Amino acid sequence: MSIFKRVSNIIRSNKEVPAPAQSGSPLEDARVGDIMNVDLEEYVITGKVIYFDRGFAPHRYAYYLQSGKNMQCLIVEKGRTLDCFLCGFLEGALDDPNDVPTTLNLDDDATFELEFHRSDVTRTEGNTDFRSGDDVIFWRYFGPDQHFFFLQWQDGKFVAMEGERTPGNQIKFLKSTL
């Protein structure tokens, strides 16, 4: 082997390997600590729940957002496009996931109809209402004026949210450096 061949092999081996490009959109790749701007209000992402079927890629994300004392949840669902829903948390009581109705009446103001429900597995980061690696049942209801109602159950605990669809192109991110 010639000296020039050895030097060229050494130089080639010292080249930096380019970092792999992020696989998804910022709506999928946001992390705890990032800043998210939704509807002209800035939030800190304090928690993230990733929903998936065993052996498949994630298909839903829930970001727990905080702005001062205000807590919101941004739900991002993957389909042909990314559907985003900005939701507020609601208080209520249900005991059994088998008692979840197909029609919900909230304060006699709005009626929501069940659109679908499914069972998923969660992976969590930061402060959320759920544990990582457990099954969760997820119900989505649609109501008047593009309002939606989401109900989630995991191991005896229900989380209820009401919100509306938010265009994904109006959501901006500022990545944390941590």
Shape: elongated
Radius of gyration (Å): 21 Å
**What is the topology, as strand order, of the major beta sheet?**
2-3-4-5-10-9-8-7
Give start-end ranges of low-pLDDT stretches: 16-21
Elements, N to C (H/E): HHEEEEEEEEEEE
What layout of secondary structure does this protein have?
Layout: H1 3-13, H2 26-29, E1 35-38, E2 41-52, E3 60-67, E4 70-78, E5 82-90, E6 103-106, E7 110-126, E8 135-142, E9 147-154, E10 157-166, E11 172-174
Antiparallel strand pairs: 1-2, 1-11, 2-3, 2-7, 3-4, 4-5, 5-10, 6-7, 7-8, 8-9, 9-10
Q: Can you put this structure into words, describing what you see?
A:
The longest helix has 11 residues, at 3-13. The chain has 178 residues and is mainly beta. The protein contains 2 helices and 11 strands, in the order H-H-E-E-E-E-E-E-E-E-E-E-E. Strands 2-3-4-5-10-9-8-7 form an 8-stranded antiparallel beta barrel.
